[in-house]
Amino acid sequence: MQAAPVERPLPRSPTATGKQRTALPGPAFAESVQGWALVLPAVILLAAFTHWPTLETIWASLHTAAVPHPPSRFAPSVNLNALWADPVFWQALRNNLIYAGCTIPAAMALSLIMALAVERRMPGRSFLRLAYFTPTVLPMIAVANIWLYFFTPGYGLIDTVLAPFGLGDLNWLGTASTALPAVIVIAVWKEAGFYMIFYLAALQSLPPDLREAAALEGSSRWNFFRRVVWPLLMPTTLFVFINAAIDAFRLVDQIVVLTHGGPDNATTILLYYIYEVGFQYWDSNYAALLTVVLLLILAAIAALQFGVLAKRVHYR
User: Fold this and answer.
1) Distance from CA of residue 37 to its chain's centroid?
2) Which among 16, 63, 173, 259 counts the fewest CB atoms within 10 Å?
3) What's the number of CA atoms in the CB half-sphere (13 Å) around residue 180?
4) Three-state SS for 265?
């Protein structure tokens, strides 16, 4: 005879016994906590010194000035109407756009030319690299004072060189038509060496077999640069363009030393006008509105760079 199978009782679930097991946090939860703990100091500093001041600036721009009739009151239309009717603001905005439109392409083109010049092997290459990069390490105040001597009418370096050609004795920084171009020349001279470093690093990272293959195919240097080198430099070009655009809208110390925004607001740009309104006229709320305008311009540039230009860049 065959023995009947023994029925074993099924294990009861935790819910049936009234007891529920507590799930222990897994390794993913521990990694998440550790990650947030590592970034928390940076998040606190970023919020305290960037996001919160930005919100305070936007809120202050919606109020009237507290000087000389305190207290200030919430009236967004007052500052907006004053901004729309402010001729100095429109002049500063125009000057800043001209400054950015000239310095960005000029500094980028000059930096690329310098990088191509010192990338290949040549006698004195290290000295030439040092000479190109030296203006970058100089403080802007020192650079402004050096060029202030160069532009001095009558006995400055530029007038001394141009005097034999009958072009000397010109007040470069005191004439409305030449003051802003003079500031642009100084900025390009100062910034091109810094951007050259990025282009030089990108050129040195290119595979050498590309040049050898182009030489075997009989390609000219210009065709090799246009067809191979320039497309591969597009990520670096985008990065340099972002830095150049930021530098074009944060210039203030050079204007303070050289022209104080003159003559007749010919060199007044947005950041200097914000400084002038906030710390000379003590209209902090109107200065806050000008700051919001500057932030909107930078946001538009960032949207153009990352929304349009970045999609056209191919990364290796």
Assistant:
1) 30
2) 16
3) 20
4) coil
Integer-rounded Cα Rg, in Å, for the chain is 30
List the Cα angle 187/191/146 in 5-degree steps.
55
Nearest-angstrom CA–CA distance, 181 and 224: 34
As a whole number of angstroms, the distance between CA 163 and CA 154 comes to: 9
Q: What's the rounded mean pLDDT across residues 253-276?
A: 89
The predicted pLDDT at position 26 comes to 65
Full-model pTM: 0.81
Helix-helix angle 87-119:234-248, to 10 degrees: 140
Return the sign of the alpha-carbon dihedral for residues 280, 286, 288, 292: negative
- Mean pLDDT across the chain: 83
Lookup result for tokens 């946090």: 25
If DSSP codes are grouped into helix, strand and coil, which group holds residue 233? coil
The pLDDT value recorded for residue 67 is 61
Contact indicator for 240, 202 with CB cutoff of 8 Å: no
pLDDT in tens, 73-132: 777 788 888 889 999 999 999 999 999 999 999 999 999 999 988 887 777 778 888 888
Please give the span between the terminal C-alpha atoms of the chain, in angstroms, as a whole number.
78
Burial tier of 263 (Cβ tally within 10 Å: 0-12, 13-18, 19+):
middle
State the Cα angle at 192 between 264 and 127, rounded to 5°: 135
Rounded Cα distance between 104 and 110, Å, is: 10
* pLDDT over threshold 60, residue 176: yes
- DSSP category for residue 282: -
Architecture in CATH for domain 88-290: Orthogonal Bundle (1.10)
Instruction: Determine which of 112-116, 164-168, 191-195, 275-279 has the lowest per-residue pLDDT on average.
Output: 164-168
* CA-to-CA separations, 132 to 120, 148, 188, in angstroms, rounded: 15, 20, 12
Please state, in angstroms and rounded to a whole number, the distance separating the CA atoms of residues 178 and 289.
Answer: 30
